[in-house]
Amino acid sequence: MSDDVATGTAPDVAVPSLPEPRGRLSEAVVTMLARSPSSSRTCTRSLAAARGADPFGDDLQLALHICYELHYQGFDEVDAAWEWAPSLLELRGAMESTFLTALRAGTPGGDDAAGVLDELLVEPAGAGAVPRHLRQAGEWWQLREYLAHRSVYHLKEADPHAWVLPRLRGRAKAALVAVEFDEFGGGRAERMHSRLFADLMEEAGLDSSYGAYVGLVHAPTLAITNMMSLFGLHRSLRGALVGHFAAAEITTGPSARRFAAVLHHFGVGERGTRFYTEHIEADAVHEQVLRRDVVGVLLAEDPRLAADVVLGVQATGLVEQRFENHLLACWRAPAPRTSLRRPLPGASAGQP
């Protein structure tokens, strides 16, 4: 038996299945992926639908997620050649344009990158509404739902940010690599942040398989990771990806402290809390590195990217706020309801 298998740190090699479509766009994407990439053409009606779709709706966000996932782990029984099939890229491009336009329209904009990052250091009134709800009035099933939502990103944590590495150079690249090295466990598979989150899911009685809950989450969850993939896969948006990463690292420390307290409140043990406790100290260091050595150096070399850095910071706040609003609208309703497309099985599974 190998050391990885013996210690339980073997990577999850399961490839997810395609999720069920939720509308015309996701149906078109799923239908295309069932065919041969060499024989498929873009449907004119699908392009028109992409241009007129709700940018934050379930259909477009799921369709984008499926397209982007081809650049990560792919899907079971889907030809890997679809990753760069021109017909699918044309449709994806139309959806991306709709989504990016909405992100720009939903944010104030500007080019004061240092200013918007400084603003993140002062938490607004009402910050931390979700962990506060979970500690004061939340139930175990709500915490499990939160983890299922976050698994869409955290089981691929730091992967979208790796796309920007070839687009940087010199000191900025070296500094971002140092941050990514920590995210990937400092070279130890069992310390990778994605693995730590999988440990937490298992402690909560959840399925830690990659992509297990994509079919259950709504658009606000999908939009968070889709935004990262959009910024990461386009060299022209490298400034936005760096801005997003900096914003995430600045805000994660306080958030991680709150969620560690939530887990302690529910009696989750050390294996389950390690994901958040790891972030409390690490991201305090990462924040300084990203602001000074990545954002600062990048803008010193190319000041024209300042507006994109601002977009990345503000868009992160936009999609995170939409996600928080969705959760609280469901959980604080007069008759609290699931924030997922259907409730998780075994409401008390994994409860300490």
Structure explained in plain terms:
The chain has 352 residues and is mainly alpha-helical. The protein has 2 domains: 3-105, no CATH class; 113-331, Heme oxygenase-like (Heme Oxygenase, Chain A, Up-down Bundle). It has helices at residues 3-7, 24-33, 44-52, 58-69, 86-105, 113-120, 129-136, 140-154, 159-162, 170-183, 193-203, 219-232, 238-265, 270-301, 306-331. Residues 1-11 have low confidence and may be disordered.
Which helices and strands, and how do they pair?
Layout: H1 3-7, H2 24-33, H3 44-52, H4 58-69, H5 86-105, H6 113-120, H7 129-136, H8 140-154, H9 159-162, H10 170-183, H11 193-203, H12 219-232, H13 238-265, H14 270-301, H15 306-331
Helix pairs in contact: 2-4, 3-5, 4-5, 4-12, 7-13, 8-11, 8-12, 10-14, 11-14, 12-15, 13-14, 13-15
Strand content: under 5%
Percentage of helical residues? 55-70%
Output the structural class.
mainly alpha
Round the mean pLDDT to the nearest integer and report it: 93
Second-tier CATH architecture of the largest domain: Up-down Bundle
Q: What is the CATH top level name of the largest domain?
A: Mainly Alpha
Number of strands: 0
Radius of gyration: 20 Å
In CATH terms, what is the fold-level topology of the largest domain?
A: Heme Oxygenase, Chain A
